[in-house]
Each structure stands twice: as structure tokens, then as C-alpha cells.
Amino acid sequence: MATRNNQAAVNGQQRGGALPAGKPKVTDGPGDAKNRKALEDIGNLVNLRIADGKAINRPITSFGAQLLANAQAAGAANKNVQKQAALPANGAAKKKPATKNTKPEVVIDITSPITDPKEKQGKKKPRASSSKRNVHSLTYVLSARSKVACGIVDIDAADAGNELSMVDYVEDLYKFYKHHEKVCSPRDYMGSQIEINAKMRAILVDWLIEVHHKFELMPETLYLTMFIIDRFLSMESVHRKVLQLVGISAMLIASKYEEIWAPEVNDFICISDRAYTREQILRMEKEILNKLDWKLTFPTPYVFVVRFLKAAVSDKEMEHMTFFFAELALLQYSIAMHCPSLIAASAVYAARCTLKKTPLWSKTLEYHTGYLEKNLLECAKMMVGCHSSAAESKLNVLYRKYSREEFGAVALKSPATKFAEDLKVLL
């Protein structure tokens, strides 16, 4: 309340009024010095400042003349605290017009009087620029310098001005992803299942890839669907007749999580040839969510593939080939049980081998993936083997999908069989 009264008095003073004479100004004690200075700051009562014994000159305006008059009146009031002095704003402006003297001997400082005057003399703050500057953290700068010294290309340099790329935090995010994948990855569950096996799972995945393509869903939806299926099957033993129901319920959940316009339950009923009712799908959806404790945020291979392709400086052909191998990994149970980051790195490595890119593995890829070339040989060999047998396989939905021009017809490329033969010697 006292602050508002002081502010009202100052506002009236600036409009040309005078302070009320009935309320004399009381001298503040030593303990109230901070409060008094704060009130002076609110009232724009300023101190005169002279740097290095020389007056700092600045063109004065009518507002500056008014501040100078106020400061002079405040100095007179300090000499005789018991007397209340009135400060006529209009009269002060007439005594020292701004047009006669363009360079006054003193400069009016309207900063807070709490600041030590000695600090002001030693340091001058630069004028803030109106345009936004790209300022990187010290950690980012030191990390970038160390990468250059080790021959690692800064793949985020081009996105430094894009706030959505989160250049300062992207590496920390992927470190968290790699830690989190070890906690949430599904365990090897096929031995605990009574009625289903790896071949039945492959048939389900092959069908879900076709459904995903017909519904024109996002790539993230397919990878999240497979994560939900594998996590649920690692916790619950299911019958053979229920396996397809688990698949469509998992895709329904993933669509709701990833898609803007998710398919409806009736769409899944039609696509499954009415094998299940609406009540069965919704009941299974609820059972899966409760079993997973409603935890669906998980770093799938797709998350890592996007980052690793950036480190590989890929083109469209490289992207299609990498995703072809990544989806082949979803189809094969023996590959799908690896960590998502290892699957993604192996897919990039197998794609580079198939397209005969040189070098097959660089320091930049090694840094961003966290894997040496020797760590990828076994998984990449299995992917190349799946590619070589994909044309003759009965489960050829994925092969037909990536044989189309919209995916660059990468499935029709010659498999890296010579690479696979060379790996037999290395492994």
C-alpha cells in the first residue's frame, strides 16, 4: 500500500502537481536504507554520475531536463530533511530548456540507485540488440571443438538456427534413449509361449505391414505396434486364435498414440474379415494397456534410424534401403530381440554395404551410433540374408512394398551376398 501511495505521488508530480504539504518526509534509519532506495527507484529519483572525473555528455530532452530538476530538488531535500520541498515539473522545464544546451555537463542516470557507483565506472553494459542472436551453451561449444579434433563431422551445424531441432540438447536426448531402451526392451519370450512360435509371429507382422500400408499410417505407428505386441507377449501367454486380435488391438493403440486421424474400430473389424467383434477388440485393448501399465513412450528403431541416417549424410535411396532393412528386422524374431539402437545401426550398415558406399563405417557414424563396425556384423549379416531370400519367401509383402517406385525399388537391388560371405570369415 505504501508503494502505491508513493507511486501516486510521483505520478502527480510528473503531471505538474506538488507533493502534499501535510505529510512531511521522515528520515529513514540505517536499517531502512534498502527500502528507501527502492522507493527512490520507483519515483525515478536519480543520482548524478561522473566517470573518471570528467562529465559524460549526452543530448538532453525535455524528459531529461525534468529528471535533472527532480534530482536537484532531491539533493536540496537531503540537506534539510524536516522541510518538504515542492517540485514543480513545468517550472523546472522552463528553467533549463532542452533546445539551448544540446550537450549538458552531466548525464542523468535513471538506473537503480542500489547499484554501486564504483561498479558502474568500471563496466559499461553494451546496448541490447533488437535482433535475436544464436547463443550456444559452453558445453555445446566444447563438444563441437572436440568433435572437430577427432575428425567427427558436426551433423547439427546446419540446424543451429532452427529451434525445433534442439541442437543443444539432441545428443543428451539420444543418450537418454539408449539408456531407456535397455530398461524397456522386451525379453526373449517365445520359449514361454505354449501355442505360438516365431513363424506365427512373422505371419502376423507380414499382415500388419500390409494393413499399415493400406491405411497409409505414419512409420512410427508400425514400429510402436510391434513394440506393444512384443512387450505384451513377453508378459502374457496367449492362444493361437487370439494372436491376430492382439495385433489389431496393438495397432489401434499405436494409431491413437501417433496418428492425427486414427483408424476406427470398424476399420479393423473389416480389415480382419470380421473375425472379431467390437467388444473383443476393445476388451483386448484395455487388457494390453493395463498389462503395459499404460506406458507407451519408448524409443523404437525408427527414432534411432532417423538420427543415424543424418550422421550417414544419406540421400533418398539410402533412406529407403535403410528402412527396408529396419522393417525386415521387425519381421524376423531373432533380429527383433536386439536393442532398437543396434537394429537401427545395423540397418544403416547393411544399406551402405548393399549400395556400396565408402567408407562403410565412419568416425562420425561410430560416434553418433555408439557402435563399432565389429559390433554390427552379426545383425547386419542376418539382414542381408533376409534380403537375399525375400523374393522367394511366402511372406513377401515387405518385398513387394519396397519394389515400388515410390520407395525407389530398393528391394530389387542386388543383395550384398559377397559382403555376407566376407562376414563368415570375420565372425
How much β-strand is present in the residues? under 5%
CATH class of the largest domain: Mainly Alpha
SSE order in H/E notation?
Answer: HHEHHEHHHHHHHHHHHHHHHH
Low-confidence stretches: 12-52, 82-96, 108-120, 122-132
Number of alpha- plus pi-helical segments: 20
Family: Belongs to the cyclin family. Cyclin AB subfamily.
Biased composition (Polar residues): 1-13
Protein name: Cyclin B1
Keywords: Cell cycle, Cell division, Cyclin
Structural commentary:
The chain is mainly alpha-helical and 427 residues long. The chain folds into 3 domains: 2-122, no CATH class; 183-291, Cyclin-like (Cyclin A, domain 1); 301-426, Cyclin A, domain 1 (Orthogonal Bundle). 56% of the residues lie in helices and 1% in strands. It has helices spanning 2-14, 33-42, 62-79, 89-95, 117-122, 138-149, 170-184, 198-214, 219-235, 243-258, 265-271, 278-291, 301-311, 316-331, 333-336, 340-354, 363-369, 373-389, 397-401, 417-426; strands at 48-49, 107-108. Helix 8 (198-214) crosses helix 10, helix 9 (219-235) crosses helix 10 and helix 14 (316-331) packs across helix 16 (340-354).
